[in-house]
Amino acid sequence: MKIFLAGAVTGTTEKQLGKYSVYQGELKKLFPKMELTTPDVIWEYRQKVIKKYPEYTKIQVDEAMVKFDLKRVRDSDYIVCDLSSLSTGLGIELGVAVENKKKIVFFFEKDSKVSNMITGAFPKATFIEYKNTKELIQRIKEYFNSAV
Known about the structure:
By secondary structure, this protein is an alpha/beta fold. It has helices spanning 14-30, 39-52, 58-75, 88-99, 116-121, 133-147; strands at 2-7, 35-37, 78-82, 103-109, 126-130. Helix 1 packs parallel to helix 6 (133-147) and helix 3 (58-75) packs across helix 4. The termini are close together.
């Protein structure tokens, strides 16, 4: 199984970034042999491109990273998104996910401002609200234990 973990990275809070570790930990417990793409995997790829091709401009590095990112979306079985913070890149990833008929599950913290474009554009996706980290862990387990 391949899972792509998506959500805001640039300009987001430490709290939001910390949630990705929660998702990663819980998904690895549920599916120890899965291939998980996280924001860290994308960032590490970017750093490899910079090191391998020091002559690349920022635009060339960005282009290589985006190609890698979107290939991972296309190759994934599930796209797991945290919508608690807004992200332009997430919208692009989700467009590719829909084009490729991927299963999408959205998690969001209670009282988050989830975009109407997301709820309206993805009516077949699963939307799961949580109140705190403990409930997030519970919801991840419930969803994947019943979905897989």
